[in-house]
Amino acid sequence: MLVGEVKVVGTLPEGPVLLCGTHNSYRDVFLFGMIRSSARLLVHPLVFSFPFLKKWALRWGFVQVSIDDAVALLKQGQTVAICPTGLVEALGDAELPFKTGAVRIAQQAGVPMVPVYFHYGNYPGRWVTPFSITVQNMILFCLWPFYRRGVTIVVGAPMDPTCDVRVRTRELKASVVALKPEVRV
């Protein structure tokens, strides 16, 4: 309802994996479930500080961002999803740096990381870039009916997390960016 038609390109391996996706919109958090319906999403602790949001976040299976909790879920055989930038990027260009938490979680749990790219059908354009990321997100949130043109979720090949954390984080970001439909060959 919030995005229009959803198309998933690619498949996941069996077993627990850490889904690592772009964070173009607050709608992303619900779309991880289109890849694997049982995926548990790591979300900012602020989500749990609002009583009305906390109730729904718990119902939807969201988990407060915690490396220990994520590792425990993965070791239990669950799929966990994370947005390594930690912030929403209104233009969906994956320009923000990735934080190292995703790689550390995958390394400690001994599971592969799976890059994911959410490509929405329509964005407002670069005219929003002079505004702060918060204002950009407010613009998209208020105008979402005008930008509801579907989403393509591109699922990449699993990545082994073993290596230096910073190096593997850069490689993870490069793998996610390479999934962008205009970049793919």
How many domains would you count in the coordinates?
Answer: 1
Helix share of residues? 25-40%
What radius of gyration results from the CA coordinates? 16 Å
State the total count of DSSP E strands.
7
Largest sheet: 7 strands, mixed
Q: Any idea what the shape is?
A: globular
Average pLDDT rating: 83
Task: Quickly give the structural class.
Answer: alpha/beta
Q: Output the helix-strand order.
A: EEHEHEHEHEHEH
Percentage beta strand: 15-25%
* End-to-end Cα distance: 30 Å
H/I helix tally: 6
In which order are the strands of the major sheet placed? Answer: 1-7-6-2-5-3-4
- The low-confidence runs, each spanning 5 or more residues with pLDDT under 50, are none
Secondary-structure blueprint:
Elements: E1 6-9, E2 18-21, H1 28-35, E3 40-43, H2 51-59, E4 63-64, H3 67-75, E5 80-82, H4 101-109, E6 113-120, H5 133-143, E7 151-155, H6 165-178
Helix pairs in contact: 3-4
